[in-house]
């Protein structure tokens, strides 16, 4: 099965390099996306441009793909469920949640000029990055790309209620499934509260398991294709 892979802020398609052979060994073809404005050389991309890139990958897939979003890009993966509910096998979210209707996509950090650069590791100290060595942190930081403000401050809008029935797997890395259930029950994640086919799976890693646990992550994604 084709598995469309969408990394979070500051990362391009190469973030999945260690996951691709693991998926291939399990019988899948990974399709990593380098998002507009996030590694393709564009500097004026928008959130809608990134959604369009994900939908284009879904439309070009061989059969109905699984769409995987990491961190902020969980919203982009969920956009595939909203725009293509009958064309995908399901969605897997890694370490993040879809944004709420009519809120900003990822307005978490102050921009510098027209883009938001990687803020360094200090905001991610603790469970997010404890499993990363200093060498790995330096390597990942060197690969990051500033994200255009047109992306981070783009407004998310949901339109098709059928998205709530799409098979949805939430991979819980730096938080536990029980913590995720608390987030959902509290009303903080309305999109997941309304999901009718949600499964939560645990992964003992930090926020970037594609770098630290690629084989384990691939195994969970394989499981998501069989739902």
Automatic annotation (TrEMBL):
It holds the Pfam family Abhydrolase_6. The keyword Hydrolase applies. Keywords: Hydrolase. The keyword Nucleotide-binding does not apply. Residues 3-219 form the AB hydrolase-1 domain. One of its GO terms (molecular function) is hydrolase activity. Gene3D superfamilies: alpha/beta hydrolase. This is Alpha/beta hydrolase. The lineage of its organism: Bacteria, Bacillati, Actinomycetota, Actinomycetes, Propionibacteriales.
């Amino acid at each position: 099965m084709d598995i469309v892979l969408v990394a979070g802020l500051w990362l391009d398609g190469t973030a999945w390099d260690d996951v691709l052979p693991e998926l291939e060994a399990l019988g899948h073809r990974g399709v990593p996306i380098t998002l507009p404005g996030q590694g393709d050389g564009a500097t004026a991309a928008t959130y809608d441009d990134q959604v369009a890139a994900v939908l284009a990958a879904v439309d070009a897939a061989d059969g109905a793909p699984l769409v995987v979003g990491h961190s902020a890009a969980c919203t982009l993966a969920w956009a595939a469920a909203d725009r293509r509910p009958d064309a995908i096998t399901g969605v897997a979210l890694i370490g993040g949640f879809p944004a709420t209707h009519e809120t900003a996509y990822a307005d978490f950090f102050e921009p510098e000029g027209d883009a938001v650069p990687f803020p360094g590791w200090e905001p991610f100290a603790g469970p997010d990055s404890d499993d990363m060595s200093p060498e790995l942190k330096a390597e990942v930081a060197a690969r990051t790309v500033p994200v255009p403000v047109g992306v981070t401050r783009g407004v998310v809008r949901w339109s098709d209620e059928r998205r709530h029935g799409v098979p949805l797997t939430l991979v819980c890395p730096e938080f536990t499934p029980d913590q995720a259930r608390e987030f959902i029950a509290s009303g903080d994640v309305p999109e997941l509260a309304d999901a009718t086919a949600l499964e939560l799976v645990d992964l003992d890693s930090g926020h970037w398991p594609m770098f630290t646990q690629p084989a384990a992550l691939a195994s969970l994604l394989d499981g998501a294709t069989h739902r």
